[in-house]
Write a structure and sequence with these properties.
heterodimer; A: alpha+beta; Chemotaxis protein chec; seven-stranded antiparallel sheet; 7 strands; globular; B: alpha/beta; Rossmann fold; five-stranded parallel sheet
Amino acid sequence: MITDVDSLVTTAVTEVFTTMLNMPVRRDPPGTVIRNGEALVAGSVGFIGTLSGVVYIYWTARFARAMTGKMLGLTEKEVESEEMVNDAVGELANMVVGYMKSRFSDHGMPCVLTIPSIVRGSHFKVEGVTSTERTVMCFDIADGQQVVVEALIKPIKKN
Amino acid sequence: MGPKILTVDDSKTIRLIIGKAFKSFDCEVFEASNGVEGLAVAAKEKPDIIILDLTMPIMDGYETLTKLKSDPELKGIPVVMLTAEAGRENVLRIAKQGVRDYLVKPFKEEVIIDRVGRIIDLKPKGVNAARIRRFDDSLTILVVDDKPAIAEMIRSGLKTETNWTVISRAQTGEAVDYCTQTVPDLVLISLSLGDGAGFSLFQLLRATTKTKTVPVFGLCVKTAIEEQGKAQQIGFTGIITKPIDLEDIKAKVTRSLNLDTSYKYFQNKNDVLVLSLPSNFTSGMANEVSAHLRVKISEAVDSGIDKAVFDVSQLKNADINLIKLGLDVMQLCNELSLRNRVIGSELISRECRNFEETKDWRFVNSFDEAIQAFNGKEIVQAA
């Protein structure tokens, strides 16, 4: 199942962005994470059960604001606060990971989700401990905005 | 006031999206951020439907649902679950709890509107207010016909007297796309579109919450009896036959949208209620005036007016439409003790004196003469 994470994340991201934001999604080649010092916002949601892990989804703070506006039918100026952006980013992360969780459960690996949390900054780095498998995927959203998904998953112990 | 919708979700984003989705409908949306708050709002507001998130802090969707179903006053409220977790096990568990429907995040606004619209009666904003829309207000009419000349004829015919915009689409698919973006005030569909496409479009519009109350007329030639019968059977609002009669379209649009046309006939002038008929007075107009008559006269009396003038000076002769309407006017004036005069030509005055029912109508030559008569200076028309 772990080997399917790539296609699972791709399907989840595509589903969420096309449905909620009507934005086209294109998978970028691996290893194309762009960091130019711009402020980033990450939404993270974990899952605990037969399979455990955490997924971080991040993009620039500027794009996060634009997405929030689009989701709520507001202009970027009308997006009142960072709290509003955080809530929208957390909800998008929740939807992506919720999709993954449902597929895990369908394959006999039930788990529960944690509440979403937000990380903001310009230079944060996601690292896993040695017992986790780390997968990094990049997507191009709306022709030019990068979305990065980092999944840290602890493999199931074989008895 | 329309139905009440309660959204219970810990995400403000989802609550705002749901509020936005139902903004164009005549309904009230209440919010709660967890199950405890949700139960409190449900008990206070008695919503017609609850959209309930599954994963929430303090009290989750399962527990909230259990508590709702065990409360005799709330157990009848239909619940739609909204969840980001769509696994089979989850869906089965939800189904067992007695929810009416469930939706999986991510979701499109149209989908949630449609699902909720299947459970409660959602009407677009403005439907209930349609009675006060006026004939000269802006309206959008969607014409679906593969013959562009028809839409063009309707467009050019209506533009002189109305503020109605005619949008034309040749294919039903294009019409559906248009209706998804903008809900027209009225739709005209050609019944001769291939493969019964016009009928299919009608059924789709009726099955869609946003358009289910929009009046839909079938367009066909007079001899297409079979199509007309089928259209009436499946519930089209009415039929408009080709060749197009613009007066017929205007009358049918007015009637189906309950447009107020009274301003064209009634006015208050110097504390006198004046009912004026135009030179092209028709039986359709007589019906329009009749529809407003009691209300307008009652309103006038209620506001302190005690005089009325029935101005038929634009008319050439007294036909049956005028006589019938005039009798209604006189009867209402008498019932409400409204002093009245009729402004009309000598010919009409003479014609009226020849009939028992109309011989007592008191004619004058002008509005000024009517005022003088009300002030006790009667000027009698020559016989």
